[in-house]
Amino acid sequence: MTASTTPKISVLVPCYNVAHFVAECLMSLKVQTLNDIEVICLNDGSTDNTLALIRETVADDPRFRIVDKPNSGYGATMNLGLKMARGEYIGIVESDDFVEKTMFEKLYSVAVEHELDIARCCFNTLLDGRVKPNRCHFLPKDLTVDPKVADNVFRHPPSIWAAIYRKDTIERNGIRFMETPGAAYQDISFAFKTTLMAKRIRCIPECLINYRIHAGNSVKKASNPFIVMEELDECIRYARYHHTEDIVSRVMLDIEYATFKWNYLRLPQAEAHRFFEAWLKRWQKHAGYGRPFDVSHLNRFFHYLAVTRFPNQFEQYLLKKSQS
User: Fold this and answer.
1) Which of 62, 113, 120, 263 is most enclosed, with most CB atoms within 10 A?
2) Which of 89, 297, 80, 39 is nearest to 198 (CA)?
3) Which 3 state secondary structure label does DSSP give 91?
4) For residue 75, what are the CA distances in angstroms to 98, 145, 170, 176, 216?
5) For residue 10, what are the β-bridge partners?
């Protein structure tokens, strides 16, 4: 296997203290049926033997590039990877996940055939030994869409690792991760920006990546929950800069509801209550982003009403749900 100077896909693999999983992740990339890839392993100052395992696993494969750097957080690490990437498309694989061997061949094939800015796939969620397919119900399958028209695409959870992105689209539109502390939430604004600037997106129905939920990953860590609001502020700022405020009014309330509810349910009770207070103030301030009521999205109106008019009752509902 040889390394191409302009590979079809650059795969970014951010790594931080993932000694239990990183070898399986990298092996799944070594055996990809699409040979013309580069894989950039970004070791973000791991304190376990992650770096040694990376070197041991990929030493015989020149398509892999290893970066060992001081810890700087997920956003800064991913921005370094974006800067280094040479591929026509960019993929992201979290180092505690693993991919099916045909993932990047299938995504690249559909991306080229349909001239896509983003090619997506469905994924499996792995939790406590169980495998649960996520069929990505907000995304039409085997259909090329413009997200500014088919705006349900924005309502799909970020899952930035179940896709490839045209590098030129990222570069031309100055898309980067926010460099906030830690390794949680930074996918939100990246997903929003790439979707906003894409003209052609397509999702294939196969589950081609295995997303692992475990005690050590960012889903289970109660890092500063208020960073999520900074991410959403960045989405709004970016949309306004590109004169696409209409998208904010159409989808932001739905994005925030799903994000805030998920965040609340994973927090300790006292911290969850503080987060809900911030959620309430935010929605009162933004007044539904100008469009809380839409006959085609009645749930949006009911969510807005529940949070802003009946906050005590709604938080009791959330509290019961978090304890169930």
Assistant:
1) 120
2) 89
3) strand
4) 21, 28, 15, 8, 18
5) 38, 90
pLDDT digits (tens, 9 = 90+) for 215-230: 765 544 456 889 999 9
Give the whole-angstrom CA distance, residue 21 versus residue 68. Answer: 18
* Other Cβ atoms closer than 10 A to 62: 12
Tokens for 316, please give them: 């009791």
> For the segment 183-202, what is each residue's pLDDT rounded down to a tens digit?
778 999 999 999 999 999 99
Give the 3-state secondary structure of residue 131. Answer: strand
Question: In this structure, are residues 75 and 179 in contact, taking their beta carbons and an 8 Å threshold?
Answer: yes
Token pair belonging to 75: 């956003």
In 143-293, DSSP assigns E strands to 163-166, 201-212
Q: What is the pTM of this model?
A: 0.94
Structure tokens at 58: 């990929």
Measured distance CA(240)–CA(294) in Å, rounded: 21
The answer to whether 156 touches 166, Cβ cutoff 8 Å, is no
